[in-house]
Fold this sequence. Notes:
Structural class: mainly beta
Number of strands: 25
Helix content: under 10%
Radius of gyration: 37 Å
Mean pLDDT: 81
Amino acid sequence: MSSPSKRPDADKRAACARRWWMAAACVWAVLLDLGCGRIGYQRRSFDAGTGGLPDAAARDGGPGSLDGGPGSLDGGPGSRDGGPGSLDGGPSCEVGTLAFLESPAMAYVYTPIAPAVQVEARGTDGLRLEGCSIAITLELTTGSGGARLLGGTPTQNATSGLATFSDLTIAELGRGMRLRASASGTSPVQSAPFDVTLFDDFEDGVLNAELWSTWQDPPAFGAERSGSFEVAPLPGTSVEQYDGLQSAPVDFTGQRASARIVRTLTMSAGAYENDTEFGIDCDAGHIGWYAEAGELSSYVTIDGTPDARSMPYDPAQHRYWAVRHDASDDSVHWETSIDGTTWTEWRVEPRPFAIDVGTVWLGAGTYVSMVAPGIAAFDDVRVAPAP
Length: 387
């Protein structure tokens, strides 16, 4: 037994130790942003009992406990990790559904979809998951769900529950395409169906290198400028000279390929000096239109042998030139239009060769020396499903 003279010092040391533990507990509670009372320390003993560490009921599962109970650190309501109103998880980020807020009504091949596609992530309560970052991925499908070609950045993080896809491009034409959005933990959703067509109005002054390649019988003198694609042959050149554009591969089945002819090269009736052309180019031949010597001719060329039918060229009446495939009877139609909406049919033939892989082809050139050949200009080139 300690001597009476030493007990006051022992009591002081014990009181000091208790104060030290109380201070340490409060510091720990402040760091957890819970307050002293939230960890069960309100003048309670740490030796045993409610809120005491060694007691199993107090440490694991009891009120004010560290693991699992109300006000606990791990997992319970109001807990630190993951529960409703938790400190680390914030509001629950469990995805209930996805929804398209912006999806295309129509898209153009090799051209970013505009306006940008937007997909919203919603919680189980149907509200947008504000404060949550969720990875959402888009795929291009047919109506039946087959995967197709989609370029750009198809996976985006939904910042505050909203993902924006600003650089998506589609690498093939088609009808009834859909975008399918998916995220972890929820079922995919599909957009409304839309058609993918080819279109270029040449307004930005920069040739779309994914869509077009140039061809030329030297020298090169075609360029995108002044809101169109222009071909300006050199004057006084006795050798044949041509330039133009050829598109990326296109399936022309059931499509209309058309262009607005802003102007042809300078023509004189009966003077075969130059031509301006538009049509489709396939492995087995060509189908299209050309203007030459004051006439407009529909033509099909198979194995280098052309079959052309001509009529007087009227720049106003024949402002748009088109070739259309009718899938119902597998026929090809040559058409012109004043406005690109109402079409006049000039010729119909059975499809002469396979057109499921081909390119849009346009250009102009001279084959004799001309003092002033002029400048041919093409605009509003389009391949779209034919009605």
